[in-house]
Design a protein that fits this description.
- By secondary structure, this protein is α/β, with parallel strands linked by helices.
- It has 2 domains: 167 residues, Aspartate Aminotransferase, domain 1, CATH 3.90.1150; 257 residues, 3-Layer(aba) Sandwich (Aspartate Aminotransferase, domain 2).
- Helix content is 38%, strand content 16%.
- It is built from 14 helices and 17 strands.
- The strands form 4 sheets. The chain has a 7-stranded mixed beta sheet.
- The chain starts with 14 loop residues before the first helix and ends with a helix.
- The chain binds 4'-deoxy-4'-aminopyridoxal-5'-phosphate.
- 4'-deoxy-4'-aminopyridoxal-5'-phosphate (PMP) binds next to helix 7.
- 4'-deoxy-4'-aminopyridoxal-5'-phosphate binds next to helix 7.
Length: 439
């Protein structure tokens, strides 16, 4: 449906909106640049633009939409709150909606954590929950330094940037995240992960390493923005052992990996690791803004108001989140993500022999990445990745570009993806790569 301002205009529906957006919105707008779409309707995997074009959405609100757009159970939950007359703004007061959300979330947590967990409702973005987690462990340990990983992404607020890969900070010690492809130690696989673990251990145990005892270690079970790098299970267990043995709280940032995305309910579940703190956002709000941390009760030593915020009581998001968590659990969508993701990964790997520009394909569950390279040099090919994203868009497929050198085409489809939809997504992507090369 065209906006009122476009009606009667000679331009295509939505063009006026896009033009005004470009004039009025800030230079830092992101997705709006690469996806010049004016979405007016959406259902499941599909978004419809104002111009009537339909797209298969494998960006899913940057990995937020576990059930795709406007899933019936999510809409029903939201309508239920609206029709009940419940207040929509309640600060951090107790409500039946919040109580139900917390119960459902605790049902899905690793049992050992759920048995004695506390939850903090944060401001509604993942980055605020990261801030809360860092503050929590700093308060509980009385220490300030942090351990974080190369390639990490934890958000855009100051503390989250400190522990992300892009910004150097004296308070965060950067450790090598294991990578098979472009392994920093040049060996990859198990050996590369082992060297990364040893480096971590030696920094902590060498009295002259220059690294003071830290307040915590923050890790993504699969690095998403960093280019889709799943951490090896054995390595994550080593991180757990290393931190536990030295009294260092382990923070798992599950903002992107949570709620079935990687083929287990939580990314840490693959390794059987129970962190001390979990940072959760994106899918837990069922497409609406919600962010929390859950953590071991013994860390709960911060003062009332130490991490406050006006918008910590989004009732619609809690209801949508409860419905989403329950649907993923009841319908075994984590297992579905694992099996379908494995098949999609295998199919994407099939692109490598015919396309020397596809350097690597990797992922876990429905978090998939295709790294594009210059076949002559082996270097990342960000311009080609952008061209592939555009060629996908031309074919009605929305994908994301990420990775350390912005050379990775990323897929984050909803966990409700059908086999037929997966085949359509793969066909369009396979078609887009040679088309992008021809440009
Ligand atoms: N942590 C991870 C692992 C993320 O992927 C993101 C967002 N991509 C964030 C934190 C930040 O979340 P938000 O954008 O909601 O602040």
């Amino acid at each position: 449906m065209p906006g009122a301002a476009d009606q009667g205009a000679s331009t295509a529906p939505g063009e006026g909106i896009l033009r005004r957006q470009a004039q009025r919105e800030s230079a830092v707008r992101t997705y709006a640049r690469s996806l010049p779409i004016v979405p007016v309707r959406a259902r499941g995997l599909t978004i419809e633009g104002a111009d009537g074009r339909r797209y298969l959405d494998c960006l899913s609100g940057a990995g937020t939409l576990a059930l795709g757009h406007n899933h019936p159970v999510v809409l029903e939950a939201i309508r239920g709150v609206l029709d009940s007359g419940a207040p929509l703004h309640v600060l951090d007061l107790a409500t039946p909606v919040k109580d139900a959300f917390t119960t459902e979330l605790f049902t899905n947590l690793p049992a050992e954590l759920a048995a004695d967990a506390r939850i903090q409702f944060c401001g509604p973005a993942g980055t605020d929950a990261v801030e809360a987690a860092l503050k929590l462990v700093r308060t509980a340990t009385g220490r300030s330094g942090l351990l974080a990983f190369t390639g990490a992404y934890h958000g855009m607020t100051a503390g989250a940037l400190d522990v992300s890969g892009g910004a150097p900070d004296v308070r965060a010690t950067r450790l090598p995240y294991p990578q098979d492809y472009r392994c920093p130690f040049g060996v990859g696989g198990r050996a590369g992960a082992e060297l990364s673990a040893r480096w971590t251990e030696s920094l902590l145990d060498d009295p002259k390493s220059g690294v003071a005892a830290p307040a915590g270690m923050i890790v993504e079970p699969v690095q998403g923005e960093g280019g889709v790098h799943p951490s090896p299970d054995a390595w994550l267990r080593r991180m757990r052992e290393i931190t536990a043995a030295r009294g260092i709280p382990l923070i798992a940032d599950e903002v992107q990996t949570g709620v079935g995305r990687t083929g287990a309910f939580w990314g840490v579940d693959h390794a059987g690791v129970v962190p001390d703190v979990m940072v959760l956002s994106k899918a837990i709000g069922g497409s609406l803004p919600l962010a929390v941390i859950v953590y071991r009760a013994e860390l709960d030593r911060w003062a009332p108001g130490a991490h406050a915020g006006t918008f910590r009581g989004n009732q619609l998001a809690m209801a949508a989140g409860t419905a989403t968590l329950a649907y993923v659990r009841e319908n075994g969508l984590a297992a579905r993500a694992e099996s379908l993701g494995a098949r999609m990964l295998a199919s994407l790997r099939g692109l490598i022999p015919a396309h020397p520009c596809v350097g690597d394909v990797r992922g876990r569950g429905l978090m998939l990445g295709v790294e594009l390279i210059d076949p002559d040099t082996g270097e990342a090919a960000p311009a080609l990745a952008v061209a592939v994203r555009q060629a996908c868009l031309d074919r009605g497929l929305i994908v994301e570009v990420g990775g350390r050198h912005s050379g990775v085409v990323r897929l984050l489809p909803p966990l409700t993806l059908t086999d037929e939809q997966a085949a359509a997504v793969l066909d369009r992507l396979a078609d887009a790569i040679p088309a992008a090369l021809r440009r």
